[in-house]
Design brief:
heterotrimer, A alpha/beta, B mainly alpha, C alpha/beta, A: alpha/beta, 12 strands, globular, C: alpha/beta, Rossmann fold, 4-stranded antiparallel beta sheet
Chain lengths: 330, 292, 330
């Protein structure tokens, strides 16, 4: 992992203006993504993790959704300022979305060669044979054996694992430097999920691409990520290196989430749970968003006097200042 | 579980009606047209005089020239205003029964075919397809030839050509609803097929059905007008808009108003039903409802 | 197989084969899908029996036959000692009221047009003669049991979150006081912090009402947390069967080991050795004869490769059964 910063998000706020009020889907988050790094963005549904991804990709549903403030710096340029056309170009070549279901995202009636060269054509102004060479090169870079022969086959002639690799090849065909994976493995069998995660890691090692992994599964975080940002109600409430986060979680929400997941290597009789539900984003409490579920909120916090802001508790480990001393949920 | 542990805020009736209007923005123009249609249809005999009386002294009076005949008179001196208002009634008299009967047949066929599948489905759907495949005017002409013109003939003809569309649509909806888990669970539970259709399938296709009805009413009015225009619908002289258009056709250049006004009314009413149907589709969409 | 008197459901040599036909008018048989091919197990009273395996291994088909929504091709399912195939109308009705199911997707499993009260009361109305007051009382009681409030009864499903909807689904399943509940991925559609709540609820209900569960889940940690018995299925056969401690602590079948190795780690330092099987699951249309696993086995014996070894479970330690062919494959 290098120190080169690929993407820097500063104080991003993405809000939705609906009939029932303003939904603060993302409400002031900061993070960085380094070259060759995998950042996990973890949170439950409605925490704003997906909307973070859409904001970076410039695909916030309009007109209801709007980036209210903040910067998304990519190669020194602010993506928030970009027009739709400029963003479309960046989405193709710089920042790519990884398909939700790698097994069904290939067109069944077109052969692999066509599907690959179609994307390559957009990037390289070359004749057919050299595009074909590039396609073959891509297939071999994702470890498909005998790529010269495979390139003419149709998706149904390939095994599931092969198809995944082809999808992987397409997603890196225009050599992006950032891949965004939004819950890409939720519907998959464990063995296929493992293959897919390995493929993403292989691609990363090969190309140094930075990956933002949007997930609610701490297992995937433990498996894949270098850094983790935990999101709750539109805020990042804790951010740290993955080992540090698992070893020393500081925020009560992180602590409770980590404990409430059953563990294959451990025996427990009853899982600890977090009572209650995340707040309604159209009506978030002022001050600390977690205080309704907090085990030990201070008086100031309860009255909504403490603003949300991250403090660094140890190098590279940031926690929301309000809850850093709130203890644990029983 | 704490987030829903409060009782809903009670709004007063006035507040809730205003909120409803603000949230759903009903199609005012369409609703006004439809209200006027219903009102005229129900109270035609109180509103205007007899639409069938010929007054040969007052023939072909142009519209807006004589206050006792605002919309003029036709070639036999029948008052256009009365005929137009009574036309609303014949629209209702034809549309309502034929839609209801077509709906009953179509829904039953669609539910049965979609839920039973197998050979029941095949047989019912082949019959439906055959019905859909015939040009509806042709079918209607055949039926009217056998049954005779007038209300009954038109209603039978219209029903016979529209039920199949309901059946097709309902079957399609049922096929998708029946795959949902709550239907599967009801089956596991041992709920009888009739109850599954009634309690689980029917309520979940009713939204589409409502929209379909409002769109089909427009079609039915057009079909009825076409039949009348062709002279195989209502008996000649009846105050039906289609017949009026046909009657005016001969003197289109001189007594243009005889055809024009009923033509405009047909267009307005059909469009109003379509607008209303579109709005209804949005209103009944559960995703929009959830945002309430 | 070891059978105890404590069993609620006994499954003996159950088979479900689907014919594969060709031609629209004159149908010719071209093969047989062996969705389930001779499985036997017992579900004990008050215990959780879990089926694990990849999609297409026959888990769902098994539950369908136990729920009597599909008849078996061959084999016997006994409920409290009586053969389900020989149920009278009365005993069939009684069975239907004592076996209930909870499915994965709480958005699809509740009729959106029915009030919660009617949803929960449907099994009661179907199977019993109860007055409106009795029904109302039962519904309120059931809502309390699953941690909800009586005033929720008047609402419609769309007013609830996923976790609450799953609680409603559980309340409905409980309403006829069943003895067996089929849980098909009961928590995988829920948010992480809600999963533990629902799993704990299911555990508590099991203890309170001596319920038996037949569970399908692809998350092995969840399976381990919930189960008393686990069966690993592969291509329509049970390849390993035992209590979760044995299965996950001392897996004997190479397929079980592969599944476990694909499970996500609970901590970034605890990465598992990845055991990736060669090849793909063979087509269930005319699967390999005898040992179905031999096409992917890392160390098949010569006898096995030639298809000379019949499949059959042997007991390797008390209560831990493994397919005899692969018991010693590495």
């Amino acid at each position: 992992m290098s120190e080169e910063i690929l993407l820097k998000v500063e104080n991003l706020r993405t809000h939705f203006h609906t009939k029932t009020g303003i939904v603060k889907a993302v409400d002031g988050i900061d993070f960085e993504l380094h070259k060759g790094e995998t950042l996990g963005v973890v949170g439950e549904s409605g925490s704003g993790k997906s909307m973070t991804a859409w904001s970076i990709l410039g695909m916030v549903p309009k007109p209801a959704g709007r980036i209210e403030s903040g910067k998304i710096l990519y190669h020194g340029e602010d993506l928030v300022e970009k027009s739709d056309d400029e963003m479309r170009a960046i989405r193709g070549t710089g920042i790519c979305m990884v398909m939700q279901d790698p097994l069904t995202s290939l067109n069944p009636v077109i052969n692999i060669k066509k599907q690959l060269t179609e994307t390559l054509e957009l990037e390289y102004d070359e004749d057919k044979p050299s595009l074909l060479q590039r396609a073959i090169g891509l297939l071999s870079s994702v470890n498909i054996p005998a790529p010269e022969m495979r390139v003419t086959s149709f998706p149904h002639e390939m095994s599931g694992g092969m198809r995944q690799r082809v999808v992987g090849a397409i997603s890196i065909s225009r050599s992006p430097d950032i891949l965004i994976a939004d819950e890409p493995t939720t519907s998959l069998d464990v063995t296929i999920q493992l293959q897919y995660l390995k493929l993403l890691k292989d691609i990363q090692e090969e190309t140094g691409v930075g990956i933002i992994f949007i997930t609610h599964d701490f297992g995937i975080v433990a498996k894949m990520c270098d850094r983790v940002a935990v999101m709750y109600a539109g805020h990042i409430i804790e951010q740290a290196d993955v080992v540090e986060l698992f070893d020393n979680p500081k925020h009560p929400y992180t602590k409770a989430l980590l404990k409430s997941v059953p563990d294959l290597d451990d025996d427990v009789d009853m899982l600890p749970t977090i009572e209650g539900q995340p707040p309604d984003l159209a009506n978030t409490p002022s001050g600390c968003v977690f205080r309704d579920r907090c085990p030990n909120p201070s008086d100031d916090c309860k009255e909504g006097n403490i603003e949300m802001a991250m403090i660094e508790v140890s190098p590279g480990h940031w926690v929301d200042q309000c809850c850093v001393n709130c203890g644990e949920i029983d | 579980m704490t987030s829903l542990n409060f009782e809903p805020i009670q709004l007063t009736r006035g507040q809730s009606i205003r909120k409803w209007i603000k949230d759903y923005n009903p199609p005012w123009i369409a609703l006004t047209i439809l209200t006027v249609l219903l009102f005229c249809g129900f109270f035609a005999n109180f509103l205007v005089g007899d639409p069938m009386t010929n007054d040969l002294k007052a023939r072909q009076i142009p519209p807006f020239t004589d206050w006792s005949h605002i919309f003029g008179t036709d070639i036999l001196g029948k008052d256009m205003t009365a005929r137009l208002v009574f036309g609303c009634r014949s629209v209702l008299l034809v549309t309502a029964p034929s839609i209801i009967v077509a709906l009953l047949i179509g829904t039953t066929v669609g539910l049965l075919a979609g839920y039973a599948r197998g050979w029941v489905d095949s047989v019912l759907m082949r019959i439906t397809d055959a019905t859909l495949g015939f040009p509806s005017i042709l079918v209607a002409m055949l039926i009217v030839t056998f049954v005779g013109t007038g209300y009954t003939g038109v209603i039978i003809a219209v029903t016979a050509t529209t039920w199949a569309r309901f059946a097709r649509m309902i079957r399609g909806e049922v096929l998708s609803v029946r795959e949902r888990d709550f239907v599967v669970l009801a089956g596991i539970l041992g709920v009888s097929p009739v109850m599954i259709m009634w309690r689980h399938l029917m309520p979940n296709v009713i939204n589409t059905l409502m929209v379909m009805i409002s769109l089909m009413i427009g079609q039915v009015i057009l079909l009825e007008a076409s039949l009348s225009f062709l002279g195989i619908g209502m008996s000649p002289g009846e105050p039906a808009w289609g017949i009026m258009v046909a009657e005016g056709r001969q003197q289109l250049l001189t007594t243009w108003w005889v055809s024009l006004f009923p033509g405009i009314l047909i267009t307005l009413v059909v469009m109003a039903f379509n607008f209303f149907g579109d709005w209804l589709r949005d209103y009944l969409d559960p995703r929009l409802r959830r945002a309430r | 197989m070891a059978s105890t008197d404590n069993s609620l459901i006994k499954v003996n040599n159950l088979k479900k084969h689907y014919p594969v036909t060709k031609g629209a008018i004159t149908k010719t048989l071209v093969g047989t899908v062996k969705a389930i091919d001779g499985i036997s197990f017992d579900i004990n009273k008050g215990e959780t029996f879990s089926l694990v395996g990849e999609s297409g291994c026959g888990k769902t088909t098994t539950t369908k036959m136990i729920l009597m929504s599909e008849p078996p091709t061959d084999g016997i399912v006994q409920y409290e000692g009586s053969d389900m195939a020989e149920f009278t109308t009365a005993s069939r009705k009684e069975f239907k009221s004592s076996v209930q199911a909870v499915f994965q997707d709480p958005w699809s499993s509740l009729n959106p047009k029915m009030r919660v009260r009617d949803i929960i009361a449907e099994p009661i109305v179907t199977h019993e003669k109860a007055t409106n007051n009795e029904i109302q009382e039962r519904v309120n009681e059931l809502l309390g049991v699953v941690g909800m409030h009586p005033f929720h009864a008047e609402r419609y499903p769309h007013e609830f979150s996923g976790g609450q909807r799953q609680r409603i689904a559980i309340a409905r399943a409980l309403s006829t006081r069943p003895k067996l509940m089929v849980l098909d991925e009961p928590v995988s559609a829920l948010d992480v912090s809600i999963r533990a709540q629902v799993l704990n609820l299911l555990k508590e209900l099991q203890q309170t009402y001596e319920l038996s569960y037949l569970m399908i889940a692809h998350n092995l940690a969840t399976v381990k947390y919930m189960s008393h018995q686990v069966a690993v299925m592969y291509l329509g056969k049970i390849v390993e069967l035992g209590n979760p401690k044995e299965i996950f602590g001392d897996p004997r079948h190479p397929y079980t080991r592969a599944l476990i190795s694909a499970a996500l780690p609970s901590h970034p330092r605890l990465q598992r050795d990845e055991l990736v099987l060669v090849g793909e699951v063979p087509s269930p249309i005319d699967p390999p004869s005898n040992c179905v696993f031999r096409t992917r086995c890392p160390e098949p014996t010569d006898d096995c490769k030639n298809g000379n070894i019949e499949m059959g479970l042997i007991e390797v330690s008390p209560g831990h059964w493994v397919d005899q062919c692969c018991a010693n494959c590495g």
